[in-house]
Amino acid sequence: MRYKLLGRSGLRVSELALGTMTFGEEWGWGASKEESRRIFDAFAEAGGTFIDTANRYTEGTSERFVGDFIASDRDHFVVATKYTLHTRHGDPNFSGNHRKNMMQAVNDSLKRLGTDYIDLYWLHVWDFTTPVEEVMRGLDDLVRQGKVLYVGISDTPAWIVSRANTLADFRGWSPFVGLQLRYSLIDRTAERELLPMARALDLGVTPWSILGAGMLTGKYNRENPPEEGRIAKRAASKERSLNIAETVIAVANEIGCTPSQVAIAWVRQQAGVMIPLLGARTLAQLEDNLGALNVTLNADHLAQLEEASAFDLGFPHDFHRQKNIRDIAYSGTYDQIDHHRRYQSGGPLDE
Known about the structure:
Layout: E1 3-5, E2 12-14, E3 17-19, H1 33-45, E4 50-52, H2 61-70, E5 78-83, H3 99-113, E6 118-123, H4 132-145, E7 148-154, H5 158-171, E8 176-182, H6 194-201, E9 204-208, H7 235-255, H8 259-268, E10 277-279, H9 283-290, H10 299-309, H11 317-320, H12 323-329, H13 342-345
Parallel strand pairs: 3-4, 3-10, 4-5, 5-6, 6-7, 7-8, 8-9
Antiparallel strand pairs: 1-2
Helix pairs in contact: 1-9, 4-5, 7-8, 7-10
């Protein structure tokens, strides 16, 4: 395992993160404490230090398990948890991004984790009701109090994240250093706005659902399609997903690895600071996922996967790629300009 700087921070994190939404059996499909411990230990033995949980995961059990597992060497691990989702259903102030929920949530998470600080505190999902100024000042207060070292944001539109970090920079508050989002070969829509923004603002990205809700594990193909609900019902989307899954299997067979390892390797090789979240319910699943560290896709493999998973970026991206628009925007000199920020900032890419 190698390590990466988490975006614009100086924090060193392992190049893979362990997602612990599977720690606990309250939701009917997770891992027992014994299996969760085996998963955690295997990740740590492989050099993993970046652990991701949330106050809502398995009704708080995930945080309690993580707290127990890190207790013997707390400072070695980079522990991330989240707030926003409800912890008392029916009570409006026990959910949301606002300061009241933020403060009670962080204190409860500290108790469950058995620690006096959280390395990375994520806003879990934007609630579209709390002013961005309230959020950023509240998170900065937590950093100044020493309860939180760094802050990040998850599942939020790019324009809100950009506005929040601009405000934080202007006011001297703690900016977001990480961005969590859904991303895989099955769902590449984060490439429209979120990933270009992350590169431009130097945010570390921790993608979740990197195996496309199981579609990319090798279990599914046209002869063995998944049950309804795991795959889009529209014929075109279903055909696309199955085509991607079969391409992943073909690449895996050619390389001599598993389809899951191909899917994770593809995410790891995307531009920017990419730190995939591994979510496993069994030790065997984690060990298979860790094998992706030994997989590097060559240009031909990347091209095959790109073709199978291609999608429409939509406006304004397709508009910017039109030759006549480039001609009038660059005075016919587009190909003569060495633009060093073209790929970092997410500007119009070459065809």
